[in-house]
Hints:
Blueprint: H1 2-5, H2 7-35, H3 37-56, H4 62-79, H5 91-106, H6 109-115, H7 126-144, H8 166-188, E1 193-194, E2 208-209, H9 211-232, H10 235-261, H11 268-295
Amino acid sequence: MARxxxxxxxxxxxxxxxxxxxxxxxxxxxxxxxxxxxxxxxxAGLSVLLGIVAFQMRSATAGAAAAGAxxxxxxxxxxxxVPYVPWRTALVPVVVLLVLTSLATRVGRSKxxxxxxxxxxxxxSAPQVAANLGVAALASCAVAQTSIMNSRWFAPxxxxxxxxxxxxxxxLAESAADTVSSEIGEVLGGRPLMITTLKRxxxxxxxxxxxxxxxxxxxxxxxxxxxxxxxxxxxxxxxAIALAGGVFGLFFDSLLGATLERRGWLNNDMVNFxxxxxxxxxxxxxxxxxxxAGAG
Length: 296
C-alpha cells in the first residue's frame, strides 16, 4: 500500500529527468548533426543498440530501454570531444554499469527468490532507470549547456576530458555500487546490520548493510569510476573524486533507507535519485577542494 501511495515520487523523478535529457539530445544532436554528422549518427545508433540489448537481456522493460537510450545519448553528446571516438565518451561507464548490475542481479537468483528479495524478471522500469541514471544526465547537461566547457578544468590535450564531469561519473559509480552491494549482499552477506542501530535484520531490509555487500559495492564503484576516467581522459584525480562520491552516496542510500524509506516517506526510486544526487554533490565539493588546493 505504501508503494502505491508513493508512486507519485517515481513519476516525479521521471518528469524531472526525461525532459532535460530529451532537450539535451535535441539541442546537442542538432549541433553535432550540423558540425559532425557521423558523430550524431554513431551516438543515436549506439544508444538505441544499448537500449535494445538491455531489453533483450530482460534488464529493462520497453519503456525503461527507451529512457535508458535517451539518457545514454544525452550523456554521450555532453561528454563528446573532437576528434570523436565513441569509447571516449560516457558510453563506456554506462555500459560498464549495465554489465555489472546485470551480472549482480543474476548472481544467486534462486536464493534471492527463496528469500523473496529477487527483482522481477521483466527488468527495471522507466522510473527506475531515471532514478539511477537521471542525476548523471542532469549533471552532464548542466556542463554541456554552459561556458564551463571552455574553462580551466580542461586537461591538456586535443581530446582532453574535463574534471567537471566528475560529479556525473560519481552519480554513475553510486548507481552501480548501490545495486551491486544489494544484490551481492543478499547472497553472500548473511543477515545484514541496520546502519543506524547495527542490529541484525532480515536480508532485503531497507537500511541493512553487510561487509560482503559493501565491499562489492565499493569495487563496483571503483570499476565504473576507473573506466569513466580512462574513457574521458580525466586521470587519477577524476577517478578518485568519482569513487569517493560513489562510496559516500552508497552509505547515504542506506541511511535514507533506514530512516525516511522505512517510515514510508520516500519510495525506492526517490531514494536512489537522492543518493546519486548526494554522490554528485559530494564530488562537486571535492572538486572545489582540489581547485582551491591547486590555486594555492
